[in-house]
Design goal:
This protein is of the alpha/beta class. The chain is built from 27 helices and 59 strands. It is 17% helix and 19% strand. The strands form 9 sheets. The protein has a 23-stranded parallel sheet, with no helix packed on it. Strands 10-9-8-7-13-12-11 form a 7-stranded antiparallel sheet. Strands 1-3-2-6-4-5 form a 6-stranded mixed sheet.
Length: 1414
């Protein structure tokens, strides 16, 4: 806060200097031109600068500022003077454009940018959305402005473009709809990572080197000494070395040396000298002597790339070029020119109009250049055979395209074409035509004339009906791609067969039936993700059939497809397999998983060609006997009803390498062979989720090639030690969820073992695996470990050790030192036993989570879990999946909780603050979010004011593929939406309309299958950070919440996930089981799960009788649960739980624990010393103070609450205080608890002025106008109304101020900014916020009616009135480090009344009280 104030004072002085300078300029200017009206609107009563008088009227703040790392850049208030801020407030269409200098742009690093990174100078220009580039350039006296999106390409802006409007449009496309929020976000410097303006085009040295190298050097021609050295201009451009005839000039003869296939060698006789030679029998040689080592290395590096090429290719893609270097036209041997992702223009020396100078150019790529129209000059390049013009916004083709008679490949994908010219039919050699993602309503008829065309791509168009008779006239076309066209019907008006079509792609359409029996030559058919109920095909030539994700009950193919090798019929409703499947002679891969099959034909299992059979998630009850020596290698039978396998299964399937029979009802497994000698080749065996016992261990001995063994969640009491020692090549062993008491010591014989997972057992002795040479992961969590006996040194390969859930485990310092090198060490926190725990107080929720790498080398899944978020009766949970990167998920884990806490202060509407949380987190990713992204899911449990019958609500927001499931009354309730193109038709249509290229694997530009992510901003506007938001009121039937990433729910259904957690109950063990099941079901990717147990039913009520009804509260919570948060369970994410936290560098660990541990009492009114409050839970809040019950009518028992401690915001280190108090210098004060470097200050807030009425308790009525917050002075704060006391909650600290003193308080300089200003509500109070609290406390009026007690010393009027009988209890409370959290303020007695239980009079003022939180 002090930094901001100092900056503010500096800006005010700078503003005054600008006024003086402007006044001086006005005096010198005399009768200058009239300022622009926009300038007069800015509220500037001074004349513009000389440049501005030309008609621009734009103010420039010339300050050098870092984009990141400077607080001045974060807060818009500290950027501008008061006049600038007033001008911005006048109209939401005004704003600030950040102009950067021409420094070299920074390459995006792999991680977040640090503040020490050199940044170009930043100048802030105030303008409006109507201000054009021409006006900005006139004011700045520059030639033009340049736009860079997402740290990528840099484009010159046209004179008529409006920079600020472009920023506003960008933010609107991201989802911002509030004009004031758009204005605020536009001024945020973090936005420059997504959209940035330059006053000059930045120069990238590396890019310039690869485009063009030139200089004047000493040159000698030929290998003999006949030629002398001479100073000549030398150029390396494209594929050639160009040497001028004269020095410093390109006039005269130019010597061109083609380098492709040639040589470049170092000349050892001369320093910094290279020899360049061309290829061929008549090769020429030039010697070039460079002046410096840097030039020598630069030229050598670039020339080496050229000579190593096999074709004359010049790749200038992604260089932000408007024209090619003019020297490139000297390279007459160029055959392939790649200019994709540039901004090529037609005119200019290096423009497209001059490309006909390339005499041998065969391939030209101009995709993603924003051309808008077809460049007709390209039609003059008669040698072209390949032309790529994708994603250029082209709406029509010129007639001159018929001139390209040599053209063989033409790509026009991602444009706006709806028709083709007849002249295109004259391209007799055109064999491949790309028309995908255009606007064609049907297959163009001109294609009939393209007799050489054999491949047609029309995916993403609007072809709703396909007539096979039209294809009869296109006898040359063999392959047609009609994905994503909205195809509804395929018809044929004739019976004539279509003999030429061999491949047809109909994926992701709306077909309900498909009859292609007339396409008798069809070899490959893709028809996944339609609505097919029936499928009829010709089997003469059929080789591959993909028909998954339909509604097929049967498939008719005639004749028997004897050429069929691969068939996918998964995720349909097949109840039996057709007979022709067994008759097919060459079928090798068959996928019939996720159907309704009750049996597999015996002939199928005995097939002599079948190598891979996937039949999981069916209803199979038995498996037929096999023939001897079948070729089957992979068999997946998981999620069936098998009780046994055939006795001869293993010694007849000798080629079997992979077997998965998880989630069945197996009680035993067959032997590996009939004799002691086994010929088994089995390498992976998954037996998880059966009823196997320890006797099965002896039957595994014969599988001596076994590398992976999963036997989790069976009935194993032990594992035979002698049998385990014979599995010598075992690499991965999972025995979790059994009843094992120990892992056999013979596990040390498995020298190749790298993964041991044995959680959720009864293991008391740590397994002897730390001496294995390749061990990487050991998971013995949720066991009964008491100690660990370690060798003298641990293997360097050990990367992860999980010891959580072992409540009796005690680790010595020596053990912890040995574990220090492990990259991932998971241990339990040891929470201190608190008074609340001793009284049996239960929490409303608790969580457990699990993350597993699978077969990936790194973990890209992160978890956020805060059981006590904000006022401690709220919670926040999240899961983030970076897919292939770990950077973005880690950044979101660290920042998203704080962003949510901040956004809650700005709005109480769930959809608003959740959407803003995601968008702000997207912006805060910075450079890391330009190319990388992550799926994100965030759950926020809070109080709901709009539902009188529901006290808690769950708000869920997500982007990407992370999902949340709520268990309600034993049934799953999906709360999230999966934003993948395959599962969300609305998003697929949106992305198609934005002209994105969706590849065959349904990925946007081949990058991601998600249409909404945090990060990946370079895919804007196709991929957006706008989340799905859903709020679900919680009730007593809600048992738990499951959060998981894509990999989890791909393998574990919602129903199975709910059933799994119901059977385990413990959240940590349940999360572990979910991840283990996913891995056993075949997941090889990262998998993460969070399980949140909910206890908000009547059984968890902690009220004291009698129960009183109360009005439902608005956010935040009206009464906290009587929960004492231990320092070991902080409100902020702890590093030991795998959740990163960011703390102030000056805070000690004990301070953080104290702050976090005291949040249970934050933002609640305190009790007066007159009465003992009735303890209430959030399900049964106490009644209001109107018509209060007398003190004597309250029940006895419970712990009397004399006052409420509020140390959360006022807990600070002694060096944080600015009142001179030091715990080492002063005598201990009452209410001040010193603990080493920590100083806790008890803030005693006396709210003893209440208005009392007589009568029985009633439900609260509507408050009068004095208490109507809609017209109050707190329009921007989260406000709650309770017990005739208005409480404004903003920053977790309470300031009690009487109603009549609010006006005086608002006049105070330090407190005026608090009214109407939203402050952060993070789990750890920022340093500047703590200072602000102390400053307000010092200036707040200290009167009997209410005050904030500053921690320096006690005021004489701030004496606690404590009866002698309770003094001992109070002292015990002061000794404890955890606060007592009472319920709402109790009813009080009339003024000057004397309670018979108290020895001192009670002074009460009849006055309404406003409790205002800082």
């Amino acid at each position: 806060m002090k930094d901001e104030k100092n900056t503010e004072r500096a800006l005010r002085s700078a503003d005054a200097e600008r006024q003086n300078e402007a006044g001086a300029e006005d005096g010198r200017a005399g009768g200058g031109a009239t300022p622009n009206p926009a300038l007069r609107e800015a509220g500037c009563d001074r004349a513009p600068a000389p440049a501005a008088r030309a008609g621009t009227g734009i103010r420039v703040l010339k300050r050098n500022m870092k984009r990141n790392g400077s607080r001045g850049c974060v807060n818009r208030k500290t950027r501008f003077g008061s006049r600038e801020r007033d001008w911005l407030k006048g109209d939401a269409q005004r704003g600030c454009v950040c102009l950067y200098g021409a420094s070299e742009p920074q390459a995006p690093p792999s991680g977040p940018q640090t503040s020490s990174t050199a940044q170009p100078d930043l100048k802030l220009v105030l303008c409006s959305t109507n201000t054009t580039v021409e006006e900005l350039c006139a004011q700045r006296d520059v030639q033009g402005l340049y736009l860079q999106l997402h740290g990528d390409l840099i484009r010159r802006l046209d004179a008529s473009e409006r920079p600020l409007q472009m920023v506003y449009d960008y933010l609107t496309a991201m989802g911002y709809d509030d004009p004031l929020r758009v204005q605020q976000e536009a001024a945020n410097s973090d936005l420059s990572c997504m959209i940035r303006f330059y006053s000059e085009k930045p120069v990238n040295a590396d890019q310039q080197e690869r485009t063009l190298l030139k200089g004047v050097f000493s040159v000698r021609k030929g290998k003999t000494q006949l030629h002398k050295w001479a100073e000549r201009k030398v150029i390396l451009c494209g594929t050639s070395l160009i040497v001028a005839s004269v020095k410093d000039s390109l006039t005269g003869k130019m010597h061109i040396l083609p380098l492709v296939g040639g040589k470049v060698e170092e000349v050892k006789r001369r320093q910094h000298c290279l020899m360049f030679s061309s290829a061929g029998p008549q090769a020429q040689t030039y010697y070039v002597n460079f002046d410096t080592l840097a030039d020598y290395q630069r030229w050598h590096r670039q020339a080496s790339k050229v000579v190593s090429q096999t074709i004359s290719l010049v790749d200038l893609s992604c260089y932000s070029l408007e024209e090619v270097p003019e020297y490139l036209f000297y390279c007459q041997d160029v055959t392939h020119l790649n200019l994709r992702h540039n901004f090529m223009r037609l005119d200019g020396p290096g423009g497209l109009v001059n490309f006909n100078r390339f005499a041998q150019l065969r391939s030209l790529n101009l995709s993603h250049n924003g051309l808008g129209t077809f460049p007709e000059s390209v039609c003059e390049i008669q040698t072209l055979t390949e032309l790529y013009l994708s994603c250029n916004g082209i709406s029509c083709l010129p007639d001159r395209i018929g001139n390209l008679q040599s053209l063989q490949t033409l790509s026009l994908d991602g444009n706006r074409l709806d028709s083709l010219p007849e002249e295109l039919g004259s391209l007799a050699q055109l064999s491949s035509l790309g028309l995908s993602f255009n606007d064609f309503p049907q297959i163009p008829g001109v294609l009939e004339r393209l007799c050489a065309l054999d491949k047609l791509s029309m995916a993403g168009n609007r072809v709703e009906i396909l007539d096979l008779s039209d294809l009869l006239r296109m006898t040359h076309i063999k392959s047609i791609d009609l994905r994503l066209t909205g195809l509804r019907c395929i018809k044929s008006e004739t019976l004539e067969p279509v003999k030429h079509l061999t491949q047809l792609d109909l994926r992701d359409n709306q077909l309900t039936s498909l009859d292609l029996s007339s396409t008798c030559s069809l070899e490959t058919l893709y028809c996944q993700r339609n609505q097919l109920g029936s499928l009829t095909l010709s089997g003469f030539t059929l080789r591959t059939l993909h028909a998954s994700n339909n509604r097929l009950t049967t498939v008719n193919i005639y004749p028997v497809p004897n050429q069929l090798t691969h068939m996918d019929l998964s995720r349909n409703v097949l109840e039996y397999l057709p007979d022709w499947v067994c008759d097919s002679r060459k079928i090798e891969v068959l996928d019939v998983s996720n159907n309704l099959l009750s049996e597999l034909p015996a002939r199928l299992l005995s097939s002599l060609s079948l190598r891979k059979l996937l039949a999981g998630n069916n209803r199979l009850e038995r498996l037929s006997d096999l023939l001897d020596h079948i070729p089957l290698e992979t068999l997946d039978l998981q999620h069936n009803k098998l009780k046994e396998l055939p006795e001869s299964f293993f010694y007849k399937a000798l080629n079997l390498k992979y077997l998965n029979v998880s989630a069945n009802a197996l009680e035993t497994i067959p032997p590996s062979s009939q004799s002691e000698e086994s010929l088994s080749t089995l390498q992976e065996l998954y037996l998880t989720g059966n009823n196997l016992n320890e006797n099965c261990g002896a039957l595994l001995v014969g599988h001596q090639n076994l590398r992976v063994l999963h036997m989790a969640y069976n009935q194993l009491l032990s594992f035979p030690a002698s049998k385990l020692s014979k599995l010598e090549v075992l690499e991965e062993l999972n025995l979790s969820g059994n009843k094992l008491k120990a892992i056999p010591s013979t596990v040390s014989s498995c020298k190749r073992l790298h993964t041991l997972i044995a959680h959720s057992n009864n293991i008391g002795v740590f397994p002897e695996v730390l001496n294995l040479p390749e061990i990487k992961l050991v998971d013995v969590s949720c066991n009964e470990q008491t100690e660990i006996l370690l060798p003298d040194s641990l293997p360097s390969t050990l990367q992860e050790l999980d010891l959580t859930g072992n409540s009796s485990l005690i680790l010595e310092h020596r053990t912890l030192n040995l574990f220090s090198h492990i990259s991932t060490l998971k241990l339990d926190q040891k929470p201190a036993v608190t008074a609340g725990d001793a009284q049996g107080t239960s929490t409303l929720w608790n969580h457990g989570y699990a993350e597993m790498c699978g077969q990936r080398n790194k973990l890209c899944v992160s978890v956020l879990a805060v059981d006590r978020f904000g006022d401690s009766t709220e919670a926040a949970y999240g899961i983030f999946d970076g897919d292939r990167n770990e950077e973005v998920s880690r950044l979101l884990q660290c920042t998203m909780g704080d962003v949510l806490a901040e956004e809650i202060q700005h709005s109480s509407v769930d959809s608003v603050y959740m959407c803003n949380t995601f968008r702000t987190s997207h912006r805060k990713l910075g450079m890391a979010g330009q190319k990388l992204g992550a799926s994100a899911l965030l759950c926020y449990i809070h109080h709901e004011s709009s539902e009188p019958g529901s006290y808690f609500s769950l708000t869920v927001a997500n982007v990407g593929t992370c999902q949340a499931v709520l268990c309600r009354d034993g049934q799953p309730l999906a709360l999230s939406k999966v934003f993948s193109l395959e599962q969300c038709s609305e998003e697929m249509e949106r992305v198609k309309l934005a002209k994105a290229i969706i590849t065959e694997d349904n990925k946007v530009s081949g990058v991601t299958c998600c249409s909404r992510l945090l990060g990946c901003s370079y895919l804007f506007p196709w991929v957006l950070p706008k989340p799905w938001v859903h709020t679900e009121p919680l009730c007593s039937k809600d048992e738990f919440l499951i959060l998981g990433n894509k990999a989890l729910f791909q393998k574990v259904s919602y129903q199975e996930a709910v059933s799994t957690v119901l059977a385990v109950r413990d959240p940590h063990a349940a999360a572990k089981k979910l991840c283990t099941l996913a891995q056993s079901y075949g997941c090889r990717d990262n998998v993460g799960a969070v399980v949140v147990a909910l206890h908000i039913g009547e059984d968890s009520c902690t009220c004291e009788p009698p129960l009183l009804t109360a009005e439902a509260r608005g956010p935040p919570a009206p009464t906290p649960l009587p929960i004492t948060v231990s320092p070991g369970d902080p409100a902020t994410p702890s590093s030991s739980s795998g959740i990163a936290s960011e703390f102030n560098s000056e805070m000690s660990a004990s301070e953080v624990g104290s702050e976090a541990g005291s949040t249970a009492s934050d933002e609640h009114p305190s009790s007066g010393p007159t009465t003992r409050p009735e303890r209430r839970c959030s399900l049964h809040p106490t009644s209001t103070l109107c018509n209060a019950v007398p003190v004597t009518s309250l029940g006895h028992g419970g712990h009397p609450a004399l006052f409420q401690r509020q140390p959360s915001s006022a807990t600070f280190s002694s060096n944080h205080s600015d009142n001179g108090l030091d715990s080492d210098d002063e005598a201990p004060l009452e209410g001040v608890i010193s603990n080493g470097s920590k100083l806790e200050v008890e803030v005693d807030i006396h709210c003893c002025a209440f208005q009392l009425r007589s009568g029985p308790p009633e439900r609260p009525k509507e408050l009068d106008g004095r208490h109507d917050l809609r017209g109050s002075d707190f329009p921007k704060s989260k406000v709650r109304r309770q017990n005739s006391v208005v409480v404004s909650a903003t920053n977790g600290c309470l300031l009690a101020v009487c109603g009549r003193e609010i006006t005086d308080l608002k006049k105070s300089p330090s407190t005026s900014s608090l009214f109407g200003k939203k402050l952060s509500n993070g789990s750890v109070v920022a340093l500047e916020d703590s200072h602000n609290i102390i400053e307000v406390a010092l200036e707040a009026p200290k009167k009997k009616s209410g005050y904030f007690a500053a921690p320096a010393q006690q005021d004489p009027e701030d004496q606690l009135i404590i009866p002698p009988s309770l003094e001992q209890d109070v002292r015990e409370q002061l000794r404890g480090l955890s606060p007592v959290v009472p319920g709402p303020p109790p009813p009080s007695t009339p003024p000057l009344a004397r309670d018979p239980n108290w020895d001192h009079p009670i002074t009460v003022l009849q006055q309404d009280v406003y409790d205002t939180a800082l």
